[in-house]
Amino acid sequence: MIHSEKAWYRNATIYQVYPKSFQDSGGDGVGDIRGIIRRLDYLTDLGVDGVWLCPIYASPMVDNGYDISDYRSINPDFGTMEDFDELVEEMHRRNLKLIMDMVLNHTSDEHAWFKESRTSRTSPKRDWYHWKGSDKNKSPNDWLSFFSGPAWEWDELSGEHYLHLFHKKQPDLNWENPELREEVKSMLRWWLDKGVDGFRLDVINLISKQAGYPDADPDCPAEQPRGISRYANGPRIHEFLRELHDEVFAPYNAIAIGEAPEVSPGLAEVYTAPERRELDMVFHFDLMGLDSGGQGKWDIRPLDAGDLRNVMKSWQSDIGNGWNSLYLSNHDQSRIVNRFGDAEFFRTESAKLLAALQYLQKGTAFVYQGEEIGMVNYPWKSPSELRDIESINYLKEIVKKGTLSFGEAWDAVRKKGRDNSRVPMCWSGDMNGGFSSGHPWISVHPEYNFINVENESKDDESILSFYRRLIRIRKSELLISEGDIEFIDTPWKNFIVYRRFSDASAHELIVAANVGPERRNVRESLHLPIPESEYLLRNYPLPESNDIWEPWEVRIWKVGTKGTME
Ligand code: ISL
């Protein structure tokens, strides 16, 4: 079913910009809005339909803007409100949509609401946050923060603890309070009045906490922050989302994309089926968890291609009338070629394979800055190079607890730390990769001379050229957003194949990927309805034999369904 007038996002590709690291225009080493404006033509050439812009609001930047101190102003590091208005205008002139990142689960502790809330237990804004427990030495419950340590912080001033699921400078808002909800809705409308086209809602399914803040479920798996089942997909979440939908998003025809940890395909359908009037799509974490073991993110294990196929298949088949988003990386994830591909020996091939395999499924595609040129993890040498609060806190905690050796923890941070994808975008071989003429806030990747937009643009066989083709195919082949999908069984788990088809279409697409470094002869074992040579897209030159598959080879065919080639 097409979501009527909102259908634009179904075959869309949205580009995620992390403003601090995208393009500095002022020479202070920090990316800014004018820098983004300068690069809009690059985005148009890439063929994307819009931008998801990570937070640019006033903020002490403890969590790089996910700690907002004023929702209605722009962080001066990024520019002014005039710059922002110009960005909206310049984007719309190019037919690009603007999706703002919006953090509604928490604010900064420097937000005026929190400052007022903490003045006393009787403050009119006391109830806008979660306060509990007057014994300084006893946490109200056993929940842990996503960024290590307890989720409660003692406030000396007013003599109670407050809840912070993330950093202690990110207190959680209390959505039970109707005045807070009114204020949030009015703020969202204010941005929509400025012309923004929708929101990416940060951890939105965590906003409704269980009454009484019960201790964590004793069976809580070790990989989750303790307590998560008490607030993820909480008791009033659907009601709160519908309120936002009916009173804010729907009247403006704005889209709402929910970041949603702890969501299954079945629950994603509940959140995103149009008749539910909640969200338009969610970001799930099942794919991103595939290289984590039982102890969570830092417990790294190699990707199993069988698991990759199963997760992809289930998110395609089990989401019913809901809508999916497709992503390979973002500002919270290290680089995908290091994680699921082969950054050392088959960087180009594996980057292209992963993109084709992921973005030709049904769903709205999200490409994170640098992914389209195959940027790789940063070769960290010392913890002093890190900027991310998550990695820094984790290392501190490990040292304190002594559960892992520092060497083991450091190795995990080097591989999975969020700063890997937060180092500056590499535009050219110029100073600082063309990112800034000043001293960048975080190191520039040492390979900027080699992996950069300028080099990739010159080469027709580059990762960037492949992304450009892929994004255009997503737009021109309606089958991708509207057709059915079938995953075809193969004798090897590393050989993932699916077909895209529809009763209404005279042709179908077949995507086949050899996920891994093995060269493979498929003659005897694979019976695909595929022609000899007619490829829509591939990541190797025409093979000598159709049966031999190179390492990390992906082929996409467009075939007529009645045995005829189109
Ligand atoms: O990044 C994570 C693990 O490495 C996640 O647990 C992440 O914290 C979670 O996905 C929520 O992310 C979002 O909210 C955070 C912010 O730090 C992230 O950048 C944001 O994407 C708190 O606002």
What's the layout of helices and strands?
Elements: E1 13-17, H1 33-38, H2 40-46, E2 50-53, E3 57-58, E4 70-74, H3 81-93, E5 97-102, H4 112-117, E6 131-132, E7 152-155, E8 160-163, H5 178-193, E9 198-201, H6 237-252, E10 255-259, H7 265-272, E11 281-283, E12 292-293, E13 296-300, H8 305-317, E14 325-327, H9 336-339, H10 347-359, E15 364-368, H11 389-401, H12 406-416, H13 453-458, H14 463-476, H15 478-482, E16 484-488, E17 495-501, E18 507-514, E19 520-521, E20 535-538, E21 548-549, E22 554-560
Parallel strand pairs: 1-2, 1-15, 2-5, 5-9, 9-10, 10-11, 14-15
Antiparallel strand pairs: 3-4, 6-8, 7-8, 12-13, 16-17, 17-18, 18-22, 19-21, 20-22
Helix pairs in contact: 5-6, 10-14, 11-12
The protein binds 6-O-alpha-D-glucopyranosyl-D-fructose (ISL).
